[in-house]
Amino acid sequence: RVTDRRGGTTSQPARIAAQRSAAQRGAAREGASARLASRRVAPRSRLDSTRLARPASPRRALALVAACSPRTAGMAASEAPRAIRRLEPSVVNRIAAGEVIQRPANAVKEMLENSLDAGATSVAVVLKDGGLKSIQITDNGHGIRREDLPILCERHTTSKLARFEDLQSIATLGFRGEALASISYVAHVSVTTMTEGQGHALKVSYRDGVMDAEGPKPAAGVKGTQITVEDLFFNVLSRRKALRSASDEYNRVLEVISRYAIFCEGVGLSCKKANDNSLDVRTQATFSRLDSIRTVFGASVAKDLLEVDEDLHLDAEQTSFKVRGYVSNANYSSKKMSFILFINGRLVDCSPLKKAVEAFYALHLPKNARPWVFLELRLPPEEVDVNVHPTKKEVGFLNEDSIIQKVVEVMEKRVLASTSTRAYSTQTLLPDAFTIKASQTAEEQDGATEKASYVDPKKLVRTDHNLAQGSLDAFVRPAKRKRVLSGTQELLMPIEWRGDPLEEGNHPATVPEETALSLTQRKAIRQRNPAEDCELTSVQEVLERIEESTNEGLKTICNEFTFVGMPDGAFVLLQHKTKLFLVNICEFSREMMFQQVFRRFGCFPMIKFREELNIRELLAMALEMDPDEGTGSQKDDNETEIDGIIMLLDEKAEMLKEYFSIDIDCTRKDDPVLRAMPQIISQYVPDTCFLPEFLLSLAKTVDWASEKACFLCIAKALSDLYAIHPETMAGTTNPD
Predict the structure, then answer these.
(1) 3 state DSSP class of 529
(2) Residue 575: CB partners within 8 Å, gap ≥ 6?
(3) 1, 149, 502, 565: which has the fewest C-beta neighbours closer than 10 Å?
C-alpha cells in the first residue's frame, strides 16, 4: 500500500489501473487531434485564409466537440448495416389485408362482386353497427364445391384465372384471390354454401386464412352461399378507432349497394340493418335500370334523366367501344354532383372523365347546380388494365383522352337535343299579389305597375307572426310566475263577430258563455293526442256544437296573430296584419279549457300532488268563503254537509277518475284525500288556491242525473278552475 498526494492510502493494483485509464484517455485525445489535422485544408488565397480564420459558429463547434468525443467515435465504429429478414407470413398477410380491406364498404364490395361472379340473381346484405360488428351476405349463386373449401380463404386462390395472360381478357370482377383471405386476417369469417344437387349445405369457419380443424359441418341451407363476417378489425385497433361512426360506415355501404343496384340488370339487391324490418335499398331482378334508379334515388331524379346508348369508334386506333347510361337534362340541378361509372362491369373512379363531364354541364346548368350521371363503358378487355389499384378502385385503359372526348360529345349531343324546352317550377300567387291581365296595353301595364308600387303606410304589416323576434314582447322581460306543478294554454275566448272580422269596421263583442269556438290549431292538438276520440254520444254532440259555432275569420286571426303585450292583468294586445285587437285573456282561457275537456275526454294525463290534499279541510275552507252560507246554526251544519259531499264524491270517484283523471280516495271516511288532477293542457297547471271552490261546485252545480248535463257541468267547473284569473295575473306583474 502507498500514500497518495491527499494523504490517503491506496492499493498497488488500483493505482496501476488509474494510470492505465489516464494513458488511454491521452491516446484518444491525440487520435482525435490527428484526425482534425488531417481534415484541414491549406488556404489557397488570402480570401480563403481569412474565411477559415473566422471563429466557428456554435452549431459547428458542437459538431467538432461531438466528433472529438471518444464515446461518439466508438459508436460510429460499431454501427453496421441492418440485416434483411424474411417477414412472417402472418405479418405479410395482415399488411396486405390493410391495403385491400380499408373499411366495411370495401369488404361488402369484394363479397358482392364474388356473388355476381357466381351468377347470383338475388343478393341480400345485412349489417350490424355499420358492418363493424357483423356483415352477412347471402346469394343464390352456384355455391362452392366441398373440395375447394380448405383453400377458400388462402391468399391467391381463385377460380377466375390460371395464367397472367388471362388478365388481358378477364371478364369477371375478381381475379386476385385476396378478398376473403384479407377479410379472414382481420375478422372472423364463416361460410355456409350449397351447390346444385347437394342434399344439405356445408358450414365452415376460417381464421387467418386457415379453415378450422373441425372442417365442413352439415347445416341447413339452400342453393347459394352465405358469408358472415364478424368483429371486423378486432385485431387492428388503430384501424378500428380511425373509422367514423357506425351510421357513417353504413351510409358508405349503402352507397356501394345503391350503385351496383342500378347497374346490375337481372339481379335483385337489398340492404338493411340487423334487427330492422325495413329495407333501405331494394331492387328486383325484373327491374329495368330506370326502374332501379327511380327506386333507389327517387322519382325526382328519374324524371329528368336522358338515356345514352351509342357505339363509338376511334378512327386512328381502330378501336370500338360502347357507352350506355343515363344523364340528367338541363332541368335537373342538385347541390352535389352524382357521378357513377362502370368500366367493363367494374365500379371505378376516373377523375379526368368526371372533370370533363362537370365542365360540360357547367355551361348548361345554373351556377352552383350539379348534374346526375350514370355511365357504363364497354371497352376491349385487352386494352384495359384492371390491376392498378389494391382495392380495384381504378383501372387503366388505352386512348384515355380520345375516349373521354367521344363520351362527352355523345352526352353533349343528347343533352342539347333536349334543351328546346325548359321546365320551371311555379309558385301560387298570394291573394294580395299584383297581377297583369293579358288584355292590358303596355301603357296600362306601366301605369298599373306604378300604382301598385305605392302602398299606404297604414296598411303595412310591421310584424310577422312567423318570427318570434317580430313581436314586441321579445324585448320585454317576462314576468316571474310562481309554479305549483307544470302546464300551457292554447284556446279561444267566447267572442261573436258582427260580419267578417278581417274587414274594416268590424269589432268583437262578448256573448254568453255557452257560445263555444273551435280549436285554433286542431290538427296540431290531434297529433299530440291520438287517443282523444270518444264514442260517447253526449260527448260527440258537444264537439259537433263546438264545430258548428266556429268562426273562420277568428280562427285565421288566432293562427296568425302577433303578441304585442299586456296592458293589464285581464287583457292582452294581439296584432293581425294592420289591426290591433284587445282580448280578454280570462274569458279566452276559460273557453279554451272548456273545449279541451271534451277534445281530450277520457285520456287526460294526471298531475299528482306531492302531498295528498285533505278533502275535508278543503271543503271546510270553501264553505267558510261561500257567501251563501250564514252564521250560527248554519255553521253548525257544515260538518253534516261536508259528510254528505264526501259521500257523493266517493260514489262518483270511479267515474271522475276514468273520464276526467280526478283521483279521489274516500276509503278513509275521516280522512278523504285528493291525489291527482287532470292535465288539460301540457305544461300548464291551475292555481291550487281555487281547489276548494272546485270541489264544492262538484257537489252543488253538477246535474248527476243526466249524462250530457253532468259532463257539461264538470267541464264548466274544470274550465273555471284552470282559467287564468285576473287576481292571479295581477299578482304576477313584474315589479320592474
Answers:
(1) coil
(2) 463, 561, 562, 564, 581
(3) 1
